[in-house]
Amino acid sequence: MASSQPQNWVALSAAKLLVTSVVAVFLCAGSLTGAQVNYAHPSKPKEPSTATTQTSIANTDPTRTIESHATSGDRSVDEQRVEVLGPNGGYLPDHETETETIHVNATTTRTVERTYRWDANGQRNLVQVTEEEARNSASGEAHVVRTISSSDLNGNVQVTQREVADTRKTSPNEQETRTTFYLLDGNGGLTPSLQTQELQKHSADNTVEVKKTMQWQDSSGHWQVGEVKESTVKEDGKNRTSEERISRSDSEGRFSEVSRTVAKETENAAGEKSNIVETYSTYVPGLAPDGSLHLNRRVTTVQNSDSSGKATQQQVEQPTPGDPIGDLHVTARTKYTVQYGGSVAQQAKATQVRDVNGTFNTLEVETQKSDRVPAAQAQAAPSDKPK
User: Fold this and answer.
1) Burial of 93 (0-12, 13-18, 19+ CB in 10 A)
2) pLDDT value at 53 more than 50
3) Hey, what long-range contacts does 202-206 have (CB within 8 A, 24 or more apart)?
4) Contact (Cβ atoms closer than 8 angstroms) between residue 142 and residue 11
5) Alpha-carbon Rg of the chain, whole angstroms?
6) Stretch 331-356: mean pLDDT
7) How distant, in Å, are the alpha carbons of 118, 278, 282 from that of 290?
8) Number of C-beta neighbours around residue 294 at 10 A
9) What is the tally of helices (H) and strands (E) in the chain?
10) Which of 51, 213, 217, 376 sits CB 3.0–4.6 Å from 372 for a disulfide?
């Protein structure tokens, strides 16, 4: 949930909107008429910290992920390289991401992310560059430009997508964010393809209401509202409830609700956390559309944690095949554990799926071993969500 402090709303909302944008564009800089991208490998700051994680999934080859972080003054570099098992039994690099962040001044941050992939000849090739420049003002306004460039078959890098977002406070408790997404057209230029407007309102009872409207261009070039997403989140101590409703227009421009998600998070005195998410939809496999919302999925997650690790159990409930609007039954369950010991963290995840005879069969077993352990295990428990 966003901070209840008004001065933090702009930065938090803009960041969240950009990370979850429908065109998945992220990290950019420059103007609307051509960003100057520095494709060179960034010079690394001194004294990097590193961590290595080994992942094994049953019936597949193991992988290894090497991460590093280094900071020098107002600049930092984060690297993540994923390695796969080679034909000779050793690890070979598969892909790598480098993220360079520069705090230009108190109000401006510039980020460049480069993604590389190794080919069959062992050569590292640049496949994507994304840049972002975010500026915040003392009045609470924010301006973020984000561009993504991709390489073609000949290795030439070209800007293919761009996103521009502007956030302003419309009242002490409300703010508005307008975002335009640009895509590459047939003439080599960037053309607006999607516009969104997000209105966010904070209430004194720790409730946040968000309304997000999405517009697309029709065949005549006119902007038409195609989807409206409304959400409400309320916190009460350690408990939280939320609801999200999505409405879409039909061929005649009439809006109707097509899905609804209701979630409830609680934590008891012993520290056990529970999260129940129910999803309703007008689309139900095996059922002709009737315009009504039907409960078709429930996910229940329970987590217990202490200084030595955490244990999370999750179950998914869905209708029985052949009875799409009948009672829900458990169709899958996952157990996820994390244990800390010295300088090593070990994780295990097992997923079981129910077959047509009602028997649970193990679908996947995944284990991880990492030398990155939280600095304060007792004070800062890991994320609530299973990996």
Assistant:
1) middle
2) yes
3) 202/2, 202/4, 202/6, 202/9, 202/173, 202/174, 203/173, 205/234, 206/4, 206/234, 206/235, 206/236
4) yes
5) 24
6) 92
7) 50, 20, 7
8) 15
9) 1, 20
10) 51
- Write out the H or E segment, with its range, that includes residue 323: none
User: What letter represents residue 35's amino acid?
Assistant: A
Check if the beta carbon of residue 165 is closer than 8 Å to that of residue 182. no
List pLDDT tens digits, range 138-179: 888 999 999 999 999 888 999 999 999 999 999 999 999 999
CA atoms within 13 A on the CB side of 139: 7
**What average pLDDT does range 203-212 have in this prediction?**
95
Q: What is the pLDDT of residue 176?
A: 97
Write down how long the chain is.
387
H-run or E-run covering 313: strand 309-319
- Strand bridging mode 75-85 / 63-72: antiparallel
> Within 13 Å, how many C-alpha atoms sit on residue 336's CB side?
18
Q: Amino acid identity, residue 345? A: A
